[in-house]
Design goal:
The chain is an alpha/beta fold and 335 residues long. Strands 7-8-9-6-5-4-3-2-1-10-11-12 form a 12-stranded mixed sheet. α2 links the parallel β2 and β3. Bound molecules: S-adenosylmethionine and iron/sulfur cluster. The site of iron/sulfur cluster has 13 residues, from α12.
Length: 335
């Protein structure tokens, strides 16, 4: 086993300070870019990390420099008592921030409890502002509840609210203008994400539907020639802009066209207890078995160090696609 680290870092000296935890592989939507229509076989609940196990992992990693945790999934709010876990994680010494990524459907129910648990930032995924299109894209009639979740999150006071939209050719790439207008009227940070080839997608289908963020920025600049470029922090994975006079901002996240691997400080933990050092790589390291065998926090750190020794210097989604693609869907990894 790799020697015990004082600070979590990978083989290339990148410090790991950010853990994205998938609380469940289950979801109440079936977004076309994430899951097949028929869904994917769910993990047995016995094979999903308990709140105690998640807390033990975060405590161990926080002792070696972990600062930030994001709760994700699947849909993190379909797991029972997610706010209770959030409260337990925000209380861990060293953890500066716990955030959440959600499709919004259950946010009207949970936003206040999440706020009370200490969460201050939520990302909401919404790929269209059109109800009929939502049904095609997410394969569920849930637009109204998702929108209500966004409104509730705004009312409760989460700030900034980031709204993530995966742009896809001929599916929603005609809505850049509508999302831009949303940022004029509401204090929301819209971010267009590049479609990543994860899960069951062929090379041809992915290429046909991929829209580069260069194209999204060009469209925005064409629509609003005075678009202001904002000063993003060096570790930011997004490039952000403001339409003059807007209450919110609009930005792009480009995992494919502009790799942001140099500053990558993240590690993922799947609902079934695997550590995933890179989203673009199929390598995963099992932490469930050692946890269930009663390992100590020092041993968790040593396992994390071993997993991180496999973190590649640079992501290579296209290389993986050429070699047969990813073994899991995004809902199974945790986005
Ligand atoms: N269910 C929650 C949600 O949708 O926000 C959390 C999990 S979801 C897997 C996290 C994020 O991954 C969402 O913003 C979703 O749009 C994004 N995502 C899923 N599959 C993707 C893909 N193939 N390419 C780009 N983003 C993807
Ligand atoms: Fe569910 Fe999120 Fe995947 Fe959509 S993107 S199917 S909401 S996990």
């Amino acid at each position: 086993m790799t020697p015990l680290p004082l600070a979590l870092s990978d083989s290339f000296g990148r410090r790991i300070e950010y853990l994205r935890i998938s609380l469940t592989d289950r979801c109440n939507l079936r977004c076309v870019y994430c899951m097949p229509a028929e869904g994917v076989p769910y993990e047995e609940l016995d094979n999903v990390l308990s709140f105690d196990e998640i807390e033990q992992v975060v405590r161990a990693l926080a002792s070696a420099g972990l600062k930030k945790v994001r709760l994700t999934g699947g849909e993190p709010l379909v797991r029972k008592n997610t706010p209770e876990l959030a409260a337990r994680l925000t209380a861990i010494p060293g953890i500066q921030e716990v955030t959440l990524t959600s499709n919004g459907i259950l946010l009207a129910r949970d936003a206040q409890a999440l706020w009370d648990a200490g969460i201050r930032r939520v990302n909401i995924s919404m790929d269209t502002l059109q109800e009929e299109r939502f049904v095609k894209l997410a394969r569920r009639e849930e637009f109204a509840r998702a929108w209500q979740g966004l409104e509730t999150a705004l009312a409760v006071g989460f700030s900034p609210i980031k709204l993530n939209c995966v742009l896809m050719r001929s599916i929603n790439d005609d809505e850049i203008e509508a999302f831009g207008h949303l940022t004029i009227e509401r204090p929301i940070s819209v971010r267009f994400l590049e479609y990543m080839p994860i899960g069951q997608v062929s090379n041809a289908q992915w290429r046909a539907q991929y829209v580069s963020n260069e194209e999204a920025v060009a469209t925005l600049k064409n629509l609003w020639p005075n678009l202001e470029t904002l000063n993003d922090s060096p570790e930011s994975t997004s490039r952000n802009f403001k339409i003059p006079g807007a209450l919110g901002t609009v930005g792009v996240i480009n995992p494919i066209s502009h790799k942001f691997c140099d500053g990558c400080n993240r590690l993922r933990l799947t609902a079934n207890g695997k550590l995933v050092p890179c989203l673009a790589d199929n390598f995963e390291y099992d932490l469930m078995a050692p946890l269930r065998a009663g390992c100590t926090e020092s041993e968790i750190l040593a396992h994390a160090a071993t997993a991180l020794s496999h973190k590649p210097i640079q992501s290579d989604f296209e290389g993986r696609l050429a070699r047969g693609g990813s073994l899991r869907t995004m809902s199974q990894i945790g986005g």
